[in-house]
Amino acid sequence: MTLYNLIKKVTPPKAKRYIKAALYDNKYINFARVTLGIRRNRSESLIRLWQFAEQNRSGKAEKIYQRLSRLERTNLTNYTLSALATLRLKNAEGACEIFEQGMRIYPEDNWLRIYYLQTCAHHNYVQRYFRFMQLISGAELTNTSAADFYKEVINAGIPLSFLINYHTIKQACTPDEFKSLQQYFISHISKNHFDFQTAKSAIYLGKHLDIETEFFQNMYETACKSFHSKKDSQKILHNLKVIASLSLPFIPSEEAITEFIESCKQLASESITLNSPSKDLLFEWGSWQCIFTSPDAGARQYHHAMRALERFSFSTWPELNYTASHVVGQPPTSRNPAKKIRIGFIVYDFMPMMSGLLRRLDKNLFETVYLRPGNESNSNIAKGWLASTDNIVEFPADDTKPAIKIIAAQKLDIIVSGPSTLSMFFPLMARLAHLQMILLEPNWTNGLTNSDYYISWRPAEPVKPDEFYQTAVSYLEHPPYWIERPAHTASTTLSETERDEIRKRLLNCGPEQHIYLCANTPPKVHPLMDEMFHDLLKADPDARIAILRSDIPSGTILKARLTKKLGQDINRCIFLTTLTKQDAHSLLMSVDCCLDSFPLCGMSSSFDAMMLGVPVVTLPFDIPFGKWTASIYNYIGVSGLVASNQREYIELAMRVAADKLWREQKIQEIKEKSSLYVESVTAFEELQNFLIKAWERKLAGLPHANWINGEWQGQ
């Protein structure tokens, strides 16, 4: 069996049971050694350890990857696993270095070359690949263009990398070269058919990355042809049609959102049932998130789009149109008022700002359940969830049907959730508790039949909620979260030497340059910000703009978009891959100015930045998630960092970057005042009071209503 097949081989069912039993075993590596036969550094044992991590059953995969990345490279297996583990740790350049070392020693190994090619393709390391291949071949390579590289990539069976980097490749090619490359791609997939999963991914990427309609349609039709003669071809083709029709660009236009709504209605009328959202879509599919990133149009159309999506979903996956038996059979009005309120929190265990709320709910009034989608993660936040609840229930993150049944079986009175991903969004279309509420995230389920309340912070929300929200809102006067006090306050300060070292290591920049960091995710960096970046680079000749997460698909289109807008100044932008939490915090503290995104601003990232004492320049906008950062400043009493227009935004950013004395004053002021929202008992008590009042209203048989200024509206 080849090394590739060994690594890809699925862990046997018996081993899976053992791994599941080890979920709470802190000595997981010792467990793996005993149960799976891990001994020293034998190749078979290391591969099993890799499988153990890939299953992610222990929630401690990162530690396994760290161990594998440090293997003594004495054989082909060790080189391969060390490089792959380094890649899993989000260090693509480090992985390439290990692959290159291995290929020098094992030049005949094809899989090592394929892994190297795949890594270079995904990260668009075109010239690096050709330089190294020329070095080890000893011959001069003549065909070294981006088009040549991606033809080799496509021919090697890695076509998705072409789609991921589509816009960047287009900018690197002449029009004729790119047209030839497009034709080569289509020719390849017509001869070497996509499997079903790859077809779904290709179609999703084509829409999400906003690839030209003509090429996308050609790719879509070619991909579909390979399934016409398959068993269940009608359902397969309908599944692909669903993804093609309902996937959206990561920042869609108003027209695209309107088309989404009409497509939902059309697909619903076809009444073709599929398996389940988790099986038929992709884990990363989340058109609700795309609609939300379209500032004004998206916010105002959002609940219409979600209502249309619900209609389609109930038609396509009837199991979503479900009401738990305890909700039907036991109306809350017939309940004994003295019985405890059974409340469940549904959120990933690495999500901050909520576990402390669960832990502090009055035990005389509430019985708590933490419902975790998927496996336990390896984080301090996860430990907080474990310590916070009366009961822990795990439901599958990759299978909607049993997820609904498991949640329903808990017979919950109230669900509080942050359903950002497919694994939580679709189950919450069902009626699984008497009251279903959203907290922490944007109001993703706004417009769905079974979404009852959106809990948020009044100063950070639009003044007129009815213009944006179909769901009843609970606007609280304090941030309705439990923000933990940092465990090590010393880490919030860097010496000048440490600061310079971090800038050099992560950015390759010296102390003389002004580093402006936009730490928000690429979907929040709206085209409206492109002009602001352009003006900032023109106004400050020492400016460098750093942007995070350039390695995710939306990051590639952001880079291509900014390249088109900024021209030669794109060379003054630094596109970083996803960083570790430690590096991200270090970077925040080492830059000269942090730029908030516009018109959607940061939220949890802004709370984090201020606990570190990092000044964030912001420009508020009166839409959902448009003025969180400004509201935090107002709440803690920090002035001078909130702009009133785009010109002032740039002026404030330049002052923060250039005026070291003023910046240091702001850093100290923010550090001192940010404690106002840390572990706030007042904020918690306000939230708990709303939960009690909402439940009392339900017991009284009254309809949902807005809760603002501590009272029900419109009574």
From TrEMBL:
<keyword id="KW-0802">TPR repeat</keyword>
<dbReference type="InterPro" id="IPR029489">
    <property type="entry name" value="OGT/SEC/SPY_C"/>
</dbReference>
<keyword id="KW-0808">Transferase</keyword>
<dbReference type="GO" id="GO:0016757">
    <property type="term" value="F:glycosyltransferase activity"/>
</dbReference>
<protein>
    <recommendedName>
        <fullName>O-GlcNAc transferase C-terminal domain-containing protein</fullName>
    </recommendedName>
</protein>
<dbReference type="InterPro" id="IPR011990">
    <property type="entry name" value="TPR-like_helical_dom_sf"/>
</dbReference>
<feature type="domain" description="O-GlcNAc transferase C-terminal">
    <location>
        <begin position="511"/>
        <end position="677"/>
    </location>
</feature>
<comment type="pathway">
    <text>Protein modification; protein glycosylation.</text>
</comment>
<dbReference type="Pfam" id="PF13844">
    <property type="entry name" value="Glyco_transf_41"/>
</dbReference>
<dbReference type="GO" id="GO:0006493">
    <property type="term" value="P:protein O-linked glycosylation"/>
</dbReference>
<keyword id="KW-0677">Repeat</keyword>
